[in-house]
Design a protein that fits this description.
Elements (H helix, E strand, L loop, with lengths): L4 E3 L11 E7 L2 H11 L4 H4 L1 H5 L10 H14 L7 E9 L8 E12 L4 E9 L5 E10 L6 E3 L11 H10 L7 E6 L4 H12 L3 E7 L1 H11 L7 E4 L3 H13 L5 E4 L4 H9 L11 E7 L7 E4 L9 H17 L6 E5 L10 H14 L7 E6 L1 H5 L1 H6 L12 E3 L3 H14 L3 E7 L5 E2 L7 H20 L1
Parallel strand pairs: 8-9, 8-11, 9-10, 11-18, 13-16, 14-15, 14-16
Antiparallel strand pairs: 1-7, 2-4, 3-6, 4-5, 5-6, 12-13, 12-17
Helix pairs in contact: 6-15, 8-9
């Protein structure tokens, strides 16, 4: 446990040959923080792909990370507060890699009474006792005793949005691109997501809408439509009808909403001659929240307004099947409600209990269910233990089943907009995966949804 006070050694108290040590373990976050602070984004430190091809074959720490630890000992331990740096030499012998334990030792080598300067030998070694950094530091030592309360530093959370986005994109690596129909892509975001997915090798876009309008929007937005097939139809309603007919005829593997209201987009899809199967359509949202140990799947927040118990069976099964596609072989499914006890006048709790019993009887398969569970008890081990819940799901849920669209939508949007989350969604239960678009969705979020749709389409290829 850290001491509550920080106290120095004055010049008169320092003896030649005295030393002080500090030990640190290099974490990935240390490299990221140092890069953020310094602006040093040398790929040897921050680009794993490049680092693996370098002479060290893995990410290494900035050299001055170790140098900064020498400064830490001098400024906080020996001599401590009041110390003024005069000079520092450093010789770097070998790299520091993630997981290495670095020991910093400074030893008083020489004192100068006329100006109160002290020279220290500096040596940094790793867990194998091998020299990492060596050098010499000259400081102006304090002459007055200083003892201060140790300042508690704030916690720092690194939201590596780009890394989380790359992890999601990497899931599509090696999968053959799918033909995707964009129904009425008459705004910039639709076209940018289509061409971004095209350029990433994910999709072969088919743009269905008024050709003159689509080309005008593309020109105004600076979007290049090369390798995009255009099908000219007079208006949005015709675009959706044509897109649904093409998907029904297996002319494409993915259907994507463009600049048309969700209600108008879904009506032809759920019509008798649309894209429905025996399974009810439901939306699943994949969301990667910084600070949470794993991504979460939320359903349903866009399609089923007030689902019945039977609807929730399909919603849950769709979500479990999607979790399998995302590489979770036995997903933990939390059926959400406001409380953890079954209460007859709270329908969400009764439905949750029924779904769990149905899973026990094999009516829902492929995952472990528990409910009713509050959101906190579903995602936090601490909250689950505080509530005295003994469950394989509580505190570590992979999938969250919302009681209704309103609660699911609010939960998802809160996480998306307040936590810098990476998210994407897809509608399951149809002949092809369907991508819906919120008006506020960024191109990044739209492309993430297209990646998820490709994963679903690829799963259907193998079925």
């Amino acid at each position: 446990m850290a001491e509550n006070f920080i106290e120095n050694h004055t010049y008169d108290e320092i003896r030649v040959g005295e030393s002080a040590t500090l030990t640190r373990v290099l974490r990935p976050e240390d490299i990221q923080l140092f890069a953020i602070m310094s602006g040093d984004v040398n790929p040897a430190h921050v680009d794993p792909e490049y680092a693996h091809s370098s002479m060290f074959h893995e990410v290494i720490a900035h050299g001055m990370w170790g140098g900064a630890l020498i400064s830490t000992v001098l400024g906080t331990e020996f001599p401590g507060p009041g110390t003024i740096y005069i000079s520092q030499t450093l010789r770097f012998s070998r790299p520091v890699k993630v997981g290495d334990t670095v020991s910093i030792k400074i030893t008083c080598k020489q004192k100068f009474d006329h100006n109160k300067h002290v020279v220290f030998d500096c040596l940094c070694t790793n867990q194998d006792g091998l020299k990492v950094i060596s050098g010499e530091a000259e400081v102006l030592a304090p002459t007055e005793k200083i003892k201060r309360a140790r300042v508690e530093l704030p916690e720092v959370t690194i939201s590596d949005r780009e890394a989380r986005y790359r992890r999601l994109m990497a899931r599509a690596k090696g999968i053959a691109p799918a033909k995707a129909i964009f129904a009425y892509p008459a705004h910039a975001e639709s076209l940018r997501s289509a061409t971004s997915a095209r350029d990433a090798g994910l999709l072969q876009p088919i743009l269905v809408g008024p050709e003159a309008l689509v080309r005008t929007v593309a020109e105004q937005s600076g979007v290049e439509l090369r390798n995009c097939r255009l099908i000219d139809v007079p208006h949005g309603k015709a675009a959706v009808a044509r897109a649904v007919a093409m998907a029904h005829a297996q002319e494409a593997e993915i259907l994507v909403q463009g600049a048309i209201p969700t209600h108008d987009f879904l009506l032809p899809i759920i019509a008798p001659d649309g894209l429905r199967t025996e399974r009810r359509l439901s939306h699943v949202l994949y969301i990667d929240v910084p600070g949470h140990p794993k991504p979460i799947i939320i359903s349903d927040m866009m399609v089923n307004i007030e689902p019945t118990l039977q609807d929730k069976v399909d919603i849950t099964q769709n979500a479990i099947d999607f979790a399998h596609m995302m590489g979770i072989p036995d997903p933990k499914v939390a059926v959400l409600a406001a409380i953890e006890t079954v209460t007859p006048n709270m329908r969400a709790t009764v439905d949750a209990a029924a779904l769990c019993k149905m899973a026990e009887r094999g009516q829902i398969t492929g995952g472990a269910l528990d409910g009713p569970l509050g959101f906190d008890s579903a995602v936090s081990i601490v909250a689950a233990r505080t509530a005295h819940l003994k469950s394989a799901v509580a505190g570590q849920a992979d999938v969250l089943i919302a009681p209704d669209l309103e609660s699911g939508n609010m939960l998802a949007k809160q996480l998306e907009h307040l936590s810098d989350a990476i998210s994407g969604g897809v509608v399951l239960g149809g002949r092809v995966p369907i991508v819906l678009a919120n008006r506020s969705d960024s191109v990044e979020s739209r492309v993430a949804s297209l990646v998820l749709a490709l994963l679903v389409a690829n799963s259907l290829r193998a079925a």
